[in-house]
Amino acid sequence: MNMTDSLREVVRRERVFDFLVPRQGPRQGPRLDLSHNTILYLEDLTVSFDGFRAIDNLNLYIEAGELRCIIGPNGAGKSTMMDIITGKTQPDSGSAWFGQSIDLLSLSEAEIAEAGIGRKFQKPTVFEMLTVFQNLELAMAQDKRVWPLLRARLSAEQRDGIEQTLETIGLSDLASEPASRLSHGQKQWLEIGMLLMQQPKLLLVDEPVAGMTHQEMDRTAELLTSLAGERSVVVVEHDMDFVRSIARTVTVLHQGAVLAEGSMEQVQNDARVKEVYLGE
């Protein structure tokens, strides 16, 4: 399949990817204000579905440049929390702020992505018939129509940006390979790279190491650790060995609220965490 056919396949895909949504909104709105060094404020959030309270008076704060791990049993509210942050779910009450000045609850999903929040789901969703380089190029492109993309020529700055991202995600040697030939772990890294092309300030990553080999898990730990600092990274994960390898601050959710928070050692030694999450 040539590039033209591949791009036709892209536009036939049923899913509308966040980075393919036309840019709008927050470019004209308030700038991200990190004067208090906090990038995300979730305060008194509550969400109920058919009488079930999925989020129950949740309060969570993420600092600028922080790597935060979120753990908790199934049904703890982790996915619903990320849905609220990215605009997929509106809470019944509470507030969600991106920095000091951006009210997330007043924005659409596309506007939230444009404001600087990127989300990676558990299952990688790359364009398998395109090369690794083309996937990153498509994620970066301003004009998402097929033919302008085909005719577009990358500037030196754009090419440098793609090559820098390839180096960051460890796929420089595979830049010209179709994404279909990548391993599961490599596809996960490519999708993270596609999000990085949008230059997010906050990256939400859902169970990044599910299905990975131990070697891929180690590389993913290095990647996520390297991303923190320049941006904030929130990782939702069930694999406790992986969490231990990257954890700085761990938040434990239970029944839609924060049960415990602190270092990995602190939460592991918390009697409530042992009871409801670690099964002790």
List keywords for this structure.
alpha/beta; six-stranded mixed sheet; 280 residues; 35% helix; globular; Rossmann fold; 11 helices; four-stranded antiparallel sheet; 22% strand
What this model shows, in words?
- The protein has 280 residues and is of the alpha/beta class.
- The chain has one domain: 3-Layer(aba) Sandwich (Rossmann fold).
- The protein has helices at residues 3-12, 78-85, 109-115, 132-140, 146-151, 156-169, 184-196, 214-227, 240-246, 264-268, 271-276, and strands at 38-49, 52-63, 67-71, 93-98, 102-103, 117-120, 202-206, 232-236, 249-254, 257-262.
- The strands form two sheets. A six-stranded mixed sheet has the order 6-7-8-3-9-10, sandwiched between helices.
- Helix 4 (132-140) crosses helix 6 (156-169) and helix 4 (132-140) runs parallel beside helix 7.
- The model is unreliable at 10-16 and 19-27 (pLDDT under 50).
Topology overview:
Layout: H1 3-12, E1 38-49, E2 52-63, E3 67-71, H2 78-85, E4 93-98, E5 102-103, H3 109-115, E6 117-120, H4 132-140, H5 146-151, H6 156-169, H7 184-196, E7 202-206, H8 214-227, E8 232-236, H9 240-246, E9 249-254, E10 257-262, H10 264-268, H11 271-276
Helix pairs in contact: 4-6, 4-7, 6-7
Mean pLDDT: 87
Strands, total number: 10
- Strand fraction: 15-25%
User: In sequence order, what are the helices and strands, one letter per element?
Assistant: HEEEHEEHEHHHHEHEHEEHH
| Low-pLDDT stretches | 10-16, 19-27
Number of alpha- plus pi-helical segments:
11
- Work out the radius of gyration: 19 Å
Report the top-level CATH class: Alpha Beta
Name the structural class. Answer: alpha/beta
The CATH homology group name: P-loop containing nucleotide triphosphate hydrolases
CATH architecture: 3-Layer(aba) Sandwich
Strand order of the largest sheet: 6-7-8-3-9-10
CATH topology: Rossmann fold
